[in-house]
User: Which sequence fits this backbone?
């Protein structure tokens, strides 16, 4: 046990961030881990002066930490944030392993590889209209997962704000008609079409015509599980909140998966990839 803790401390020390950053102490329990993206989801206690008690995913400074910790482990760690953004865990220490879950519960999520055909599952959009991913064939489709009650500004609100910027940029160019945006809720019980419509309008400057280019959709819990499995999304509900990884998927005009992003992306990177995918299928 001491050797494991020492390895983690040594590894995260090597990856310590440079420059000014705020640091807070965290104690909690590991709920999920995803070594492929160097993320762990932690149910943690209140962090005085920073954050209430909640369950949320964190990027970790060292991939080794995400590989060694197990769901059920009690941990102590430092939360580092640069200017209130990009939360990550550093100096992770396992304090108790007695609650470790079975290996099956700790298994990582595996997404369909790029080039695979995206699953054609039914959704219901903000207008109560049934839609399917196949409806957007012929267009480059950028998909993400959010929920309207998300309290963390650097997660769902950030995703929606950046998608709004992409939408506004594309509206000024011919690429608008060759692309589409789709936000799928992780909270279908609460996020009804009416709720999604109100949420979407807030990011569309109140202009409902924008829904022709950007859908906000829900689906059944079973279908959501299938989509999550196909796109490598890890999520679960706890304490009336939904902890989830940040997953963005680019689907090519031919209906195949083109690319994934998790926590490391920029708005311009997403927009450029979306434009390029759309133009590849356009007639010369």
Assistant:
């Amino acid at each position: 046990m001491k050797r494991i803790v020492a390895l983690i401390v040594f590894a995260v020390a090597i990856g310590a961030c440079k420059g000014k950053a705020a640091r807070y102490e965290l104690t909690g329990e590991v709920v999920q881990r995803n070594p492929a993206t160097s993320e762990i989801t932690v149910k943690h206690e209140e962090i005085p002066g920073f954050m209430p008690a909640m369950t949320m995913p964190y990027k970790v400074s060292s991939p080794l930490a995400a590989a060694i910790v197990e769901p059920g482990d009690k941990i102590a760690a430092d939360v580092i944030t640069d200017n209130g953004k990009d939360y990550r865990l550093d100096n992770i220490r396992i304090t108790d392993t007695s609650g470790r879950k079975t290996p099956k519960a700790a298994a990582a999520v595996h997404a369909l590889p790029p080039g695979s055909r995206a699953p054609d599952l039914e959704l219901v959009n903000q207008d109560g209209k049934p839609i399917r991913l196949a409806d957007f064939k012929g267009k480059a489709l950028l998909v993400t997962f959010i929920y309207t009650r998300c309290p963390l500004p650097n997660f769902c609100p950030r995703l929606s704000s950046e998608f709004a910027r992409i939408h506004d940029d594309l509206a000024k160019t011919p690429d608008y008609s060759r692309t589409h945006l789709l936000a799928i809720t992780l909270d279908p019980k609460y996020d009804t079409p009416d709720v999604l419509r109100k949420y979407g309008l807030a990011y569309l400057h109140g202009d409902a015509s924008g829904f022709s280019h950007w859908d906000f959709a829900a689906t059944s819990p079973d279908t959501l599980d299938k989509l999550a499995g196909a796109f490598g999304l890890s999520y679960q509900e706890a304490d009336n909140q939904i902890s989830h990884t940040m997953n963005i998927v680019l689907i090519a005009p031919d209906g195949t998966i083109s690319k994934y992003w998790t926590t490391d992306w920029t708005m311009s990177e997403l927009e450029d990839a979306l434009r390029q995918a759309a133009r590849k299928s356009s007639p010369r």
Remarks:
- Residues 2-96 form a domain with the OB fold (Dihydrolipoamide Acetyltransferase, E2P) fold (CATH 2.40.50.320).
